[in-house]
Amino acid sequence: MRTLIDLGSRRDSLYIIDTATAVDCTKDVRFRRSFRSLIECVVPCCGFQLPSKTSDVPDSDSTGGGATPPTTTVTGTFYGHRRGRVRFCLHDSSRTSPILLLEFTIPTACLAREMRHGLLRVALECDRNRARCSSLFGVPVWSVYCNGRKVGFAIRRRMSEGDAAILKLMRAISVGTGVLPGASKMGEGDVLYLRASFDRVIGSINSESFHMINPVGCTGQQLSIFLVRS
To answer: Region (Disordered) spans which residues (predicted)?
Structure first.
């Protein structure tokens, strides 16, 4: 309900403030800080930071013009001995040699536990000032984040005889998870593996991502891998 005041009928004089007054902004500042903390909790990205100020300058690494990044399909394989470290490799197909092979400083059993929740985001990050190679596949060492938590490092490796023997056993497997029997020389147990097709999205020379394609009729697992040179 609005109240109209007829200033012409007022008998008393109007008081006009013509001096500086103090305004209590404490509540507003507390609200902004609380809102910022809430956003940081809701968006648990790896290395995510809210921008301190807006900028109209476009990112030099972006594809620009709103163009859709190019996408191809590759085969990705996680494997490792039950009590050993996990490895990840990318192939053009399940029958070809890896175009990238990384060894994580993460136990295979630990990564398997992370996958049980159905949502796994693996971010590999490196410093562009230290990693001067032109291709992301040539970066020797990565920092590894799983669902926003730093869990160790990943090291680029050449395929060993042991890797070649394991991948040879999996040559006929295009998609699936399972266990390959046979203990290693170090007593690390059987080999656990996960193989799937991934959409490869090239964002720029400094960023690529790989998103697992679930088989038809299966929508339970969400797995993405990000390579970022920052």
So the answer is: 54-73
